[in-house]
Amino acid sequence: MLSVTLTSLALLKARFDLEKRDIVDAFICFAEVCLFNHSPNRFSPEELKDWLINDFGLDLPLPTVKLFLSRMCKRRIVKRDNKLYLVVKIKCQPQEFKKNQAELEAHYRAVVLNLKDYTRDELGQDLTEADCESGLLNYIDEYSIECVASFTSGTTVPIRGSQPLHWRFIVSRFANHISSKKPDLFRYFVTVLTGRMLVNALLASDLSGLGAKFRDTAIYIDTPLILQTLGVVGKEIKAYTREILHLFKDAGAQLKIFSHTLEETDHVLRNAERYLEMPSGGHGNVIVALRDAGMSPSDVALIRARIKNLLDDEGIQIKKTPSYVEKYQIDEVALEKEMEAVGLQYRSEIAKKADVNSVRSAYVLRAGSSPERVEESRALVLTNNAALARAAYAYGRGYHEFKNVSPVITDFSLTNIVWVKSPLKNPNVPMHLLLAHCYSILKPSEQLWNKFLAELDKLRNDKTITPEQHQYLRYELRVRDELMNLTLGDEEEVSEQIVLQILAQHEQEITRPLMDQLNQVGTDHQKALQRLTVSESKVSNVEHNIRRLAHLVPAVVRAALIIIAIFFLVYSYRPFFEPPTASIFWRVLSGILGLLLIALNIAHHISGFRIIDPVNRLSSLLEAYLLKKLQKALGLNNEEVYKRINSDNQ
Which of 50, 167, 516, 551 has its CA 20 to 30 A from that of 567? Predict the structure, then answer.
């Protein structure tokens, strides 16, 4: 039955695209197929209502079913017989309709099976097909119009079956995945959502007012949506927010912001600017989004300086917050109790007071009027906080001015109400809305993150983790994604084991700076060794050349001395061969050399003295002297070289 419901929503969107009229015309074919399937002689509106539930899984209000029958009578599909109806002629093509239904059923099966596989492979959750179907239906049913009395006559999507654990996160994660990886499945998903938004219109107590335009309606935008419009929480969210604001303007609404909301926005941005200057400051959604986008404090300062111009560019006027008027003063204490009852939690008292002030201001601006429809309301506070809308709606039920239209409405509810007025003109709104919804669900809630931080602080105080690990887990953006994957968005799942599991997954990241430093030291050391080796090689070559040069000079000197010694030795024997007429000088010199040679021979025989020894000693001293001078001239000063040279020569 769940598959029938979701397939019917997709089929409704397909019929609407085909008819290109209004939602009632698109639904008439569903009624005709019911009549074709059951072939009644006569039938009542109540019976047709039951057939729509059984055949298509859609539970429509009885006034809506009667509207279908009224239009079918005009087209002579049926005719009235007292309080019953007779079939005249079925004009649609039931077989073609069922063929389209079968095709969409196949798409639905593909989505369910892919969701099952994705949940098992990526999230470690083994869900049954029934769990997946129930999760999809519950997810689609979230897209309902809340806190508007004229849209509370029931639900067109009856919830059946059990809800799989954490279905909101699981389906959002899956939808976000297929939006980029499997566009065909995503288009089907968007088609189902579009059908859901179309069928929401059938809950209106007065369907004739669906095409109504705004009449002097001012929409006062809440701080979170203003931040989205300014682009400080992501480009995708900014695109979605701008699109729906333009949708409201096209429908005739005036976009405004209270002066106290502007002050709150500036306060948020000022804090963000301050925290961004600290490498590990702040952890709110705005800070996280700014860091994720790579924005600097100067970027935020520029936004603050130009905020009025930026709002003016979007057509948003600044309205001074109304003064307190006793006649229209609300019970702020009672409103705060309703806010606590729905589980609203605020990071600061400033944000809480700003929300109360917005509700009070809307009451003052309505000045006692009690609009029947959203389009007739003088003042609406637009928020993305469904809990705030529910609290304001619960409080307003006791007041004439708020009985039918709450002072606070969610961006989805108002978008749905306005979009059905001209869906063909804005066909991409459902897709952008789906992506924005996924984005918000995939981020940790305030409660989830605070519980994680509490566990983190506890582990640090117990010295289970180091201060460095604590700081990393607190401010690393990827930790948030890991937290959502492990807890599936459920704060009850946060525990010491979850924190340690995330720590284990990121341990390498935490130690990476030290490892990088160590690796850099090793790299530098290796490069230094390589440079040293090259330098030593060069020095060795230089030393080798120096030694050759230093050795060459003494060798030449020694050779010269030896030649001279040989010359004198030979010359010493000259007296024996020269004639007596030779010069007295040469005769005396030859005699002296001869006597010296005889003395050297006697010394050699007595003490082992060799004439070559003083020559070698002189060469060694000369070589060392020259080597020292050359090294000094070239900037080399190596005592070991002298030692090696001396040892080589000894």
Answer: 551
